[in-house]
Amino acid sequence: MAEVLDRFVRTEGGVTTDDSDFDHDVNLFESGYLDSLAIVSLISFIEQEFRVELSDRALTSPHFTNITGISAVITEELAEASSTILPSTGISK
Fold first, then answer.
1. pTM of the full predicted structure?
2. HEC profile for 28-93?
3. Cα dihedral 57→25→11→36 (10° resolution)
């Protein structure tokens, strides 16, 4: 998951492979890797790629600032989504 997000951020933010300041723990927004338009693209990408609808809680999480934290938020959202679907039916509880 983190590698998928890494590729997206590098492409969207124009991050070069030799950028020594970029890693999975850098704040993507404060460091200028993603601007407000890129954030919208990131959210759309996450929802399509991982087939999850990000909740307001996820989007305002203090962890939704770097690749490591965003990966954790997605994992939580996926776990929550799967626990609200009845097994083998696909029907929400």
1. 0.85
2. CCCCCCCCHHHHHHHHHHHHHHCCCCCCHHHHCCCCCCCHHHHHHHHHHHHHHHHHCECCCCCCEC
3. 40
Q: Rounded to an integer, what distance in angstroms lies between the CA atom of residue 9 and that of residue 5? A: 6
Which residue from 84, 68, 9 is spatially nearest to 43, judged by alpha carbons? 9
Site of tokens 């933010």: 13
Helix (H, G, I), strand (E, B) or coil at 16: coil
* DSSP reduced 3-state for 92: strand
Q: Within 10 A of 51 (CB to CB), how many other CB atoms are there?
A: 9
Return per-residue pLDDT of the chain as tens, 93 residues: 999 999 999 999 999 999 999 999 999 999 999 999 999 999 999 999 999 999 999 999 999 999 999 999 999 999 988 876 555 555 554
Q: Determine the residue type at 80.
A: E
Structure tokens at 84: 């609200």
